[in-house]
Write a structure and sequence with these properties.
By secondary structure, the chain is of the alpha/beta class. The protein contains 16 helices and 13 strands.
Amino acid sequence: MRIPLSIAFIVRDPLPPVRADLLTLFGVEMPRYGVASALVGQAGGDAPVAWSAGGAYPVGSVNSPYASVLAPLWDLAGLVRAASRMRPDCIQVRDKIASSLLARIAAAMLGIPFIYWMSFPIVEGYEARRDALAQRGKTIAWLAHAARAALARRVLYRLVLPGAHHLFVQSEAMADWLAAQGLARTRMTPVPMGIDAMLFRRSSIAPSADPRLDGRRVVLYLGRVAQARQSGFLLDVAARLRGLVPGSLLVIVGDAPSRDEMAWMRAEIARRGLERDVLLTGWLPQREALGYAVRAEVGLSPIPRGALFDVSSPTKLVEYLALGIPSVANDIPDQAQVLEQSGAGLCVPMEPDAFAHAVRRLLDEPGLAAGFAARGPAWVHAHRTYAILGRVVARAYAGILADRVA
């Protein structure tokens, strides 16, 4: 199936992109189907931005103090540049609200479809930030965030999404959630997070030689730490494991969104006296991070329940399964579905005792763990590689833009 199409694509991520669902899906997989994408967005640094899958049009910088105000106008300028050079078949916006309103108007003027890609409920994120400020008594900041959240809700749910020709969403749960708000389910295509099969081939990954892992029962968390993600929960689990599994070591491979958040996590480890039970590596290059991952006996994926994360599609669980790591995850819809279909891990409530006892079960029952480890890679390669997801997205474009394909 080859469908020669060009997409003008406004993205929230800094350019050049580093996330696999942009870099691999649109940089590698979509060109296989003839789909070129011109990326429009803000530059993440001073280095030149190259995008061989259709061209890149960076305008402005994410590091500018005025980025949040000027980004929509920058995006419009980049969109004009892209449209003048490539004659797009559609305009697509990912996770930007004001820019998406301008893009919808531009698409109508050009007589081409407008598509919205929702990988995160941005409005609900604004509202969560508003509520957090209210709890902290930050009156002036609360007023500003309350106004932004109210305006964003009106623009996105009344002006942007109802007028989109199609919506790409992060999960089946997100599609159901939006359908409950009155949007047509038939206009949505769920595209969950996946992996690059070549990068996550276990046989090609050199295990970490870090001596701190030697002789320990290594339990892994691969991903960001942050108070908003309730990362203190990981330390609660580690504290339980200290009594349940002698020699256990929780290895947290990942960074925090800010130095303050990382300092908070290190302080929490010290306050709880978990220095010998938790290893926090900080940011690592991907191959080095995966070297720690393949030393683990169990992978953890606790995701807080609620409006923000119930509609998410976490990458870490799919990565564990691809590497053959038996996993323990909680019951947000996407994770519950992955574990039910794959049979490669245990799904439990996000409670410290439940997670700790599930980990001990996997460590105490090698037959059960081996079965999970064997089933994970096969399921991921059949359902969650970007080669598989690329076919889904290309098929959706073929349907959305059928008249232009013809």
